[in-house]
Amino acid sequence: MQNPDSACCLPLCSLALFPSNHLGFSLLYNNNKRVFLMTKPVIVVPKGMEFIRDEIGYAPAVLANGTLYIAGQIGRDDSRQLVTDKEAQFVQVFENMKRVLAKAGGDFDNLVEMTSYHTDMRDLPLFMQVRDRYMKGVLVAWTAIGAAQLCGAPGYFLEVKAVARID
To answer: Which pTM does this prediction carry?
Structure first.
C-alpha cells in the first residue's frame, strides 16, 4: 500500500512544480509541503574552497535529494595555511563547515550526523566546548574516532565530516 502523503498517488491538481534553482533542484509542492526533486547531485563549493575541487580533486560537499554530504573539514584558513593553535584549529574547522552549510542554504540546525577524527582523544572536552559554540542546542548523531595522523601531515588535530538535511 502506498503512502497517501506521497506525491505519486495524489491527484495532479494538488501538485505545483517550480523550475530548478541555483543548487540544481526543483521544488514540488504537495498540499503546501515543500518536497525536493533533484535533477542531479550538485557539487557545493564555497568561495575560497575552489582549490579543493580544482587542485585536490574532491568536493567540499555534495547535495543530493535534499541531503548535504559534507567532506571532512580541517583547520586550514582562507590562505590555505594550517591553523596551529589547537583551539583555533577547532574553531577553523567549524568556520569551514559553516561556510559549506551556508553555501548550500543551511546552517548548523540542519545537521543530522557528524563524525569527528581526533589525533588525541584527550581533546574531546575542548572539541565539545568549541562544537557547542556553533551548535547551540543542536543534537546530532555523533561518532568520535581516534586517528594516528590526519591529512598525511603532522599538526592536524581534527577533521570533521557531516550530513545535513537542506529543506
So the answer is: 0.78
